[in-house]
Amino acid sequence: MLSKSFPVLSPELQIGFHYRLKNIKDLYFHEALRKAVQNLQISSIDAELNEYVPTDSLQKLASFSIRGEAIFPVPILLKENPFLLGYYRLLLGFSQKEFYSKGPFGIFKLMEEKGKLSPKSSQLLNGLCVSLIASAAEFVVQFEEFNLLIISELQILTVGPQLRGSINNEYGQIATQKTFGIIKDLVSKYILSSTPTSIKIKNDSGRIVTIKFSSDPDIEIIEELQSGSRGLISIEIKGGKDISNIHNRIGEAEKSHQKARQRGYFEFMTIISVDIDYIALKSESPTTSHFFNLFKISDKNSFEYQRFKDIISSIISVNI
Question: What UniProt keywords are attached to this protein's entry (predicted)?
Fold first, then answer.
């Protein structure tokens, strides 16, 4: 006998991971290394491996039937394909933030992101390889077995959080667009002009109010006075759906709202995409005047939508 129906959970996050991982593999996994090796003389690669890599490390890899360049970056390979810096970073387990924010490594970020080797990074490339080879030698000595599958698995373990971070950024952009659309719908009869990123309305007091995308906060609502502009509402939108990271995101919202308050804003909204008690968040963002859930304010029949509408209406002086 069947019990109550269970909700159908969406696998959209994993589907997104699949396509992003496919693109990343083309740039940073073994296939990219194989193509670079094909374009070079093996004798030239071996010469640099022998110059830069400890003999015992190469011998240990040879005992696993693994060539040295599978683990150790040498200048000739990174010159041939600068994207391969990502291959070795992922293999050694360094996140982008951790790696590129340390010491001189930031100068090499364009190699992984754009496949470009600037004149300055080219001059420092030997030093980069020496550093990474030292890390890799420490890495190799800990393994009792090694093969291409293990290499791939380790790279995937490192890239996972990176993929989730990019998904969360994408969620954030979508959530901001949705919120902007809800506000635009609310003030539709007052609109004087609009673009994909801003709306100008004339409120019931005859003053111009601008609603626009911003980087900090995500959306800001500004009223034009004869004496100048006045910030009305700072809106921070955290679209990530991972509840385990909500407290970090609320902390980010608080910093943005504090900056807005220093610029004269007096109402602060934080919109989230996870279901959590707002009281639990208030201590982490005391500047936030009102918390809202994006999915609830998207439902015109919900109490939260009505509350959002009433607050917007009151603050910007429109009857909606």
Answer: Endonuclease, Hydrolase, Nuclease
Total length of the chain: 320
| Cα angle: 250, vertex 254, 258; to 5 degrees | 170
DSSP 92-161: HT--HHHHHTSGGGGGGHHHHHH----HHHHHTHHHHHHHHHHHHHHHHHT-S---HHHHHHHHHHHHHH
- Integer Cα distance of 60 and 131 in angstroms: 20
- Tens digits of residue pLDDT in 238-270: 987 777 788 888 999 999 999 999 999 999 999
The region of weakest confidence among 122-131, 159-168, 171-180, 183-192 is 159-168
Closest listed residue to residue 257, CA positions, set 234, 284, 224: 234
Q: Establish whether the linkage from the previous residue to 217 is cis, with ω within 30° of 0.
A: yes
d(CA 91, CA 32): 14
Averaged pLDDT, 82-94: 95
Locate the domains of the chain by residue range: 12-146, 173-316
**What's the pTM value of the predicted model, to 2 decimals?**
0.57
Cβ atoms < 10 Å from Cβ of 175: 21
Report the top-level CATH class of 173-316.
Answer: alpha beta
Helix, coil or strand: residue 65: coil
Neighbours of 1 (CB within 10 A): 2
Q: Rounded to whole angstroms, how far apart are CA atoms 103 and 127?
A: 12
Q: Is 288 within 8 Å of 266 (Cβ atoms)?
A: no
3-state secondary structure of 27: helix
